[in-house]
Amino acid sequence: MELQESLRKIIHVDMDAFYASVEQRDNPELRGKPIAVGGGSSRGVVAAASYEARKFGVRSAMSGYLAKKKCPELIFVRPRFERYREVSYQIRKIFLDYTDLVEPLSLDEAYLDVTINKKGNPSATMIAKEIRQRIFETTGLTASAGISINKFIAKVASDYNKPNGQKTVNPDEVLEFLENLAIGKFYGVGKVTQEKMYQLGIFTGADLKAKSVEYLTEHFGKSGAYYYHVVRGIHNSAVKPDRIVKSVGTEHTFFENLVSEVFMIEKLDDISKELDKRLKKKKIAGKTITLKIKYSDFTVQTRSKTLPYYISDRALIMETVKELLYQKKIKDSVRLLGISLANLNNEEKEGEKKKEVAVQLRFDF
Question: Which residue range(s) make up the domain with 212?
């Protein structure tokens, strides 16, 4: 059997160019113009780009220098994350009017399980349309959505009719949809994996489906079994409304590279203050401290230490960070530093996980 017996109705809602759209909405002078959130300095990185900027090839995670080179008319806007969180909260409230099974992935996207929903509406497609309309009426922003039997297919589908569109993949369409899908469109297949698949003659879902689980495991390790199942429409991951935070961290990219550990300690102290605020807000502590160092040649190095006890105190964190910094000689000038805390005390105890309840669907999407 290639499709799971107990089907669910999952919606993936993805805001369209969220950060950039918020800035254009709040500042009418930016509407219709190519803008990039972040990346305003020679060392900066683009956090988001408007659709007008994307036409020139500007993308998130691109350096501000390259973005400006691709689009000379590009307007850089300083990020306002508190504002984005505020708007995201408005959107989250709309989701909760339909179901309590909402799993946020970030400020601008989330999964919703509407198999059983508060509106008693049997059509996930109509629910998605209604949610998108309410988001627009409430925030003035557009959203796209994907609707299908599991999280994997819903996420892939949400990218199909962007911006301001949606796509439903009904249960009887799933296998054909996946077989015709370009391998680069599979969620979880990055550029490196895509290139490796190309070398193995895997260009579409149909090509992937032709490979045995043994073959895929041999070439892709543990991910091989994942690819084997998702191309057959099998992805049983539940929508988890209370996603457990695995780590908390803060990092800064600097306008000028740092060459002295003395200056690095000064910057790390500022970073630790931000981390301290986040830890206090979440009321959590952790055992593993990681120092992230990105050099001027863009290579990244991480140094970690796990303590036998939980800590959240900034002074203790900085004590360990200094130890990690001086652990090895800095090989080059540094453009980014970050501190994160993991192995947190908020992880679920064994046996406390809620059992997933499967529901057999008998009606149309």
Answer: 174-230
pTM score, two decimals?
A: 0.73
* Ligand-binding site membership of 14 (annotated): yes
Residue 108 marked ligand-binding:
yes
Q: Is 359 domain-assigned?
A: no
Boundary residue ending a domain (54, 79, 104): 79
Instruction: Please check whether residue 360 lies inside any domain of the structure.
Output: no
Q: Do strands 75-77 and 247-258 pair parallel, antiparallel, or not at all (unpaired)?
A: unpaired
Based on the domain organization, do 266 and 321 belong to the same domain? yes
Contact criterion met (CB below 8 Å) for 107 and 17: no
Task: Find residue 342's DSSP bridge partners.
Answer: 247, 288
| Helix (H/G/I), strand (E/B), else coil: 219 | helix
CB 305 within 8 A of CB 324: yes
For residues 277 and 326, state if they share a domain.
yes
Catalytic residue among 52, 109, 179, 251: 109
Q: Are residues 251 and 323 in the same domain?
A: yes
Structural domain total, the chain:
4
Residues 6+ apart with CB under 8 A from 181: 156, 204, 205
**Cβ burial 67-103 (10 Å sphere, 16+ → b, else e):** bbebbeebbbbeeeeeebeebbeebeebbeebbebbb
N- to C-terminal Cα separation, the chain = 21
pLDDT, mean of each 10-residue run, the chain (365 residues): 66 97 96 91 81 95 90 94 92 96 93 96 97 98 97 95 96 95 90 93 96 95 93 91 81 86 92 91 91 89 93 93 92 91 71 38 48
In CATH, what number is assigned to the domain containing residue 335?
Answer: 3.30.1490.100
Q: Report the C-alpha gap between 175 and 165 in whole angstroms.
A: 22
Residue 109: active-site member:
yes
Query: Do 75 and 90 belong together in one domain?
Result: no
Q: Is residue 239 part of a domain?
A: no
**Residue 333 included in any domain:** yes
